């Protein structure tokens, strides 16, 4: 096989992969942009009518023009919202339902040049609605604490104090002898929130407890742009059934809503780098549903069994909520399989250990740019012998160039005879013309895996390198790295044998220009990887060429 022809096919394969990726970006479910909002206010919109819960009586929404009556407890709240602040999270709890309906990520600015505007993941704004809805239904039809029920709190503001590791925020609903304490526990440096719904029955009747968790989110397709890395990532509802992870196309839900019975699962609304997830108790099994009305989807996990709470008894229903960045360690600790929301695609088997190595190197280096350079060197070292073997083959072919040209001149009118003569020459000199492409074929999966690691890992978001590269997850603003990469590829070609066919030679000369244009809009971290790899390959080939020529 002609070495150059194979190299061209490899280049075309990469271009085809880019085309497929672009097609998926343009026709996959559109991602929603992160929303930035001013500091939370006490004004609350009218409660949203709840979705039906299977096999249970319907809940009546609170009136649109008035706040529901708040039962008397020890210390009534002064407003209808409770503000919570930790070292990493600012949250807002609506006392109508006692649910998280506002969340700002203090350590994650929306834009690099606007550090004071944090990313907002939960919002009560109807235009960008994204909220949790939780509660405990009563299968017997008595008083129940739902996401439209009036809750009360002892304070309107809670803050994690210096030196404290945990902040507890208790809320209370009380009606007809039924008291439901909804307790949130926030932890320092964490985005997972423990939530406990504790039912105390002081009535004369059995309370048939059915806890549920819901995520309600408006689907807002943004304008797609090849310059916006957010538009490459899936946004929408996802469900984990204990074994597999499913991304759900909201358009399909209009015709066929999802309905499954799941143990040890969870549901989430994900977007690029961030997510909101609800994790019910692993057992008993819950009924999972996802519905979409054309504008808003509601993902629900409803307990599949009624738990009777007899008069005088108390029952507790723990759950977990996650609202924050896709930090893999925290995701793994929150729930089994939640780490899968960091979607590396088909090459997860390569991308996951690649990220692990990057993360370990970063813990020593402290700079993601230099981390990429070091890991690229380690990958090159891993395949050193393979590269050396192919490099020697390329060096020998380069040394054979005068003899190959002589054969081409001799058999210029008989291509079949020329091919036989060249093959005889290869056999005599023990040269494999295809060997030079093997390292390229090996690198392609690593290249794609590296691409997804840089695209999907929130750790790379807005990560600076040095000088003008202040965000490795987006393109080089001045296109300097792509130009350096193209130059490195051009010099690397000069170290390899020229193609015997003049047309192929011209195509090869143009290939660095094609790659430079293609890489110009890739994340700077990926270009840095390819530039480093090209420089290392160039240095290795130069050394091999010198050794072969001297021998």
Give a description of the structure.
The chain has 551 residues and is an alpha+beta fold. The protein has two domains: 3-27 and 351-550, no CATH class; 81-341, Beta-galactosidase, Chain A, domain 5, CATH 2.70.98.90. 34% of the residues lie in helices and 26% in strands. The chain contains twelve helices and 20 strands. It has helices at residues 3-27, 250-253, 328-334, 348-365, 368-382, 384-399, 401-410, 415-429, 438-456, 480-494, 502-519, 524-550; strands spanning 81-85, 89-94, 99-111, 114-122, 130-138, 152-153, 157-159, 166-175, 178-187, 192-201, 207-218, 236-240, 245-247, 258-262, 266-271, 274-279, 286-292, 296-303, 307-309, 314-325. It has a nine-stranded antiparallel beta sheet with strand order 6-8-9-10-20-16-15-12-13. Strands 5, 11, 14, 17, 18 and 19 form a six-stranded antiparallel beta sheet that branches. Strands 4-3-2-1-7 form a five-stranded mixed beta sheet, with no helix packed on it. Helix 6 crosses helix 12, helix 10 packs antiparallel against helix 11 (502-519) and helix 10 (480-494) runs parallel beside helix 12 (524-550). The two termini are 27 Å apart. The model is unreliable at 1-10 and 22-79 (pLDDT under 50).
């Amino acid at each position: 096989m002609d070495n150059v022809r194979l190299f061209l096919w490899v280049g075309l394969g990469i271009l085809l992969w880019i085309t497929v990726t672009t097609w998926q970006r343009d026709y996959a479910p559109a991602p929603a942009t992160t929303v930035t909002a001013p500091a939370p206010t006490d004004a609350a919109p009218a409660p949203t009518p709840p979705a039906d819960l299977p096999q249970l009586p319907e809940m009546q929404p609170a009136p649109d023009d008035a706040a529901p009556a708040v039962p008397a407890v020890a210390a009534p709240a002064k407003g209808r919202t409770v503000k919570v602040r930790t070292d990493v999270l600012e949250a807002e709890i609506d006392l109508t339902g006692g649910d998280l309906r506002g969340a700002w990520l203090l350590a994650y600015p929306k834009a690099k040049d606007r550090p004071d505007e944090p990313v907002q993941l939960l919002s009560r704004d109807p235009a960008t609605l994204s909220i949790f809805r939780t509660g405990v239904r009563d299968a017997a039809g008595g008083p129940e604490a739902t996401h439209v029920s009036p809750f009360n709190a002892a304070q309107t503001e809670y803050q994690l104090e210096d030196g404290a590791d945990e902040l507890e925020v208790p809320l209370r609903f009380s009606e007809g002898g039924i008291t439901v304490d909804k307790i949130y526990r926030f932890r320092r440096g964490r985005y997972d929130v423990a939530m406990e719904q504790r039912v105390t029955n002081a009535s004369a009747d059995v309370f048939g407890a059915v806890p549920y968790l819901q995520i309600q989110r408006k689907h807002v397709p943004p304008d797609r742009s090849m310059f916006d890395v957010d538009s490459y990532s899936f946004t929408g509802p996802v469900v984990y059934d204990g074994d597999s992870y499913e991304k759900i196309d909201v358009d399909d839900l209009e015709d066929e809503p999802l309905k499954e019975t799941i143990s040890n699962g969870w549901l989430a609304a994900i977007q690029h780098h961030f997510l909101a997830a609800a994790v019910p108790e692993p057992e008993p099994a819950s009924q999972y549903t996802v519905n979409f009305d054309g504008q808003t989807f509601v993902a629900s996990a409803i307990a599949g069994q009624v738990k009777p709470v007899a008069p005088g008894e108390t029952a507790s229903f723990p759950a977990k909520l996650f609202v924050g960045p896709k930090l893999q360690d925290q995701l793994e600790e929150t729930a089994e399989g939640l780490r899968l929301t960091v979607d590396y695609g088909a090459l997860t088997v390569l991308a996951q250990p690649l990220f692990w190595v990057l993360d370990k190197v970063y813990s020593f280096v402290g700079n993601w740019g230099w981390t990429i350079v070091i890991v690229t060197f380690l990958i090159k070292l891993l395949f050193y012998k393979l590269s050396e073997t192919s490099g020697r083959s390329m060096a020998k072919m380069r040394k054979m160039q005068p003899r190959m040209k002589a054969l081409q001149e001799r058999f210029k009118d008989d291509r079949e005879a020329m091919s036989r003569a060249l093959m005889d020459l290869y056999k005599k000199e023990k040269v494999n013309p295809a060997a030079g492409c093997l390292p390229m074929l090996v690198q392609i999966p690593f290249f794609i895996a590296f691409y997804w690691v840089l695209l999907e890992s929130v750790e790379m978001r807005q990560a600076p390198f040095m000088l003008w590269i202040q965000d490795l997850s987006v393109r080089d603003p001045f296109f300097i790295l792509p130009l350096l990469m193209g130059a490195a590829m051009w010099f690397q070609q000069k170290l390899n044998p020229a193609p015997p066919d003049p047309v192929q030679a011209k195509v090869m000369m143009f290939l660095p220009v094609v790659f430079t244009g293609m890489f110009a809009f890739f994340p700077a971290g990926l270009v840095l990887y390819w530039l480093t790899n090209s420089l290392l390959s160039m240095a290795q080939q130069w050394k091999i060429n010198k050794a072969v020529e001297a021998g």
